[in-house]
Amino acid sequence: MSTSAQIGVTGLAVMGRNLARNFARNGYSVAVHNRTAAKTHALVAEFGDEGTFVAAETAEEFVAALERPRRLVIMVKAGEPTDAVIREFAPLLEPGDMIIDGGNAHFADTRRREKELREQGIHFVGTGVSGGEEGALLGPSIMPGGSVESYATLGPMLEKISAKAADGTPCVTHCGPDGAGHFVKMVHNGIEYADMQLIAEAYHLLREVAGYSPAEIADIFRTWNQGRLDSYLIEITAEVLSHVDAATGKPFVDIVQDQAEQKGTGRWTVQIALDLGVPVSGIAEAVFARSLSGHTELREASRGLAGPSVTPLGEAEKAAFADKVEQALYASKIVSYTQGFHEIQAGSEEYDWNIDLGAVAAIWRGGCIIRAAFLDRIRAAYDARADLPSLLSDKGFAEEIATAQDDWRAVLVAATQQGVPTPGFSAALAYYDALRAERLPAALTQGQRDFFGAHTYRRTDRAGSFHTLWGGDRSEVSA
Ligand code: 6PG
Which residue intervals define the domain 6-phosphogluconate dehydrogenase C-terminal in the entry (predicted)? Predict the structure, then answer.
């Protein structure tokens, strides 16, 4: 066995296999390994002509096949399977070697693993990889964390296999130390959930309020995809909506059960946001909408509840309504990204990661599920002002929302009147209106807290904390 492989991939399910092929197709010699050796041999038999593969049957063979410092990519299920693989390989490695975890790991696990392996002198590089099977093969968006030292040797390889944005820039950046890469990937997925939910709401409104058919809605999405909403998710939405079920001849979307599943990364985004105190209401509504859809018994039991009497739009009004939905979708999308980037900024501060938000937007322009023309605007906004308090503070986005807001509100009025649920659109608008409000009813909340629990409040006109003697003469005391 030669020790010539420049990189190794263990875990040859579809993502691992495609990533290994991507390295090989880009001229790297790749050692491949899987728990069951049959998969390893099948990969080499089927795709061996794409590049240089070194098939390894055992962990020892795999490690021996790698040039030093070793670069070992693990592509196994997040959680315990990842720990098991690390336990297997770490004792065989030497200081300076790198383990790259390309799975959807929780960033807290990545922080723990990085710390443990650092004590052995091994670099642990928790890396977000987005783009599904096709991205892994043809060029994903890659979000590595870990040490600067590891990125120096790994970065050029990742740049080579990554997607390239329209301007040719590789969609990979060193996100920051330890868990930064997996944190960024987690928020990517949260935004992915929000994007999908908003698109689903737009579809629902076009169908229920305007009365368009799925095929007609597909055409509307195709038109939108020519404009500022140009994105992978809008593109595939049109494909899904125009697809006809071969067995029944019905629109495919009508024969799929309406219960959305999830593997958990969107939920993590919300859980962590709660801990960090960041309002990601759009992402939360997207997660809850999936949960609600899955409560079939509850939904069954609620079918008879009263709703409004519905007046479908006339032919003449339909097209104008569709234009308004585009405005509502775009404005809500700006809010989702505002919330997601706020979470990355808060995580970066909490864990001292120093994440460059503009660089994150830049690497999401290609390869990943949320890739969109829009991300170039976000990159430009952060490039113009790295300390932008929020995306809504960017003049361009603020102006677009100002233009969209009347239609956004009109769409929500129609949705409310016709009884179509729009948790994503509504949460986005509520966030926008709350942020721009001069005064919030939080003052009343503080008064209530002081009334029942003497929790104190601060005044608008003087420094300090105060308490009103609610049960007594209602005079105020300094707390
Ligand atoms: C990606 C995706 C991917 C994710 C799927 C499924 O970036 O390629 O985010 O990592 O696992 O989208 O997610 P759910 O099953 O939770 O919808």
Answer: 181-471
Interval 356-379: pLDDT, tens: 999 999 999 999 999 999 999 999
Kind of pairing between the strands at 465-468 and 476-478: antiparallel
192, 201, 326, 343: which one is catalytic? 192
Q: Residue 472 corresponds to which tokens in the numbers above? A: 């007594």
Amino acid at 215: A
Mean pLDDT of all residues in 114-119: 98
Question: In testing the pocket of ligand 1, which one of 183, 265, 283, 293 has its CB within 8 Å of the most ligand atoms?
Answer: 265
Task: Over range 427-432, report the average pLDDT.
Answer: 98
- Give the whole-angstrom CA distance, residue 33 versus residue 43: 10
- Ligand 1 atom at minimum distance from 135 CA: 8
Token code pair at residue 194? 């929000």
Decide: residue 412, CB within 10 A, 0-12 exposed, 13-18 middle, 19+ buried. Answer: buried
Instruction: Tell me whether residue 159 is one of the annotated catalytic residues.
Output: no
Say yes or no to pLDDT of 2 above 90.
Answer: no
Closest Cα to residue 392, out of 319, 442, 441, 341? 341
- Cβ 143 under 6 angstroms from ligand 1: no
**Could you give the 3-state DSSP secondary structure of residue 314?**
coil
CA of 402 to the centre of ligand 1 (A): 33
Diameter over CA atoms, the chain: 88
Structural contact between residues 338 and 390, judged by C-beta atoms closer than 8 angstroms: yes
Task: Please tell me the pTM assigned to this model.
Answer: 0.97
Question: One-letter amino acid identity for 311?
Answer: T
210 within 8 A of 321, measured Cβ to Cβ? yes
Q: What is the pLDDT of residue 311?
A: 85
What is the dihedral sign for C-alpha 191, 197, 203, 209? Answer: negative
Half-sphere exposure (CA, 13 Å, Cβ side) for 308? Answer: 14
Which of 215, 173, 158 minimizes the C-alpha distance to 26?
158
Which tokens is 450 given? 């002081």
Ligand 1 atom nearest residue 131's Cα = 8
250 a catalytic residue: no
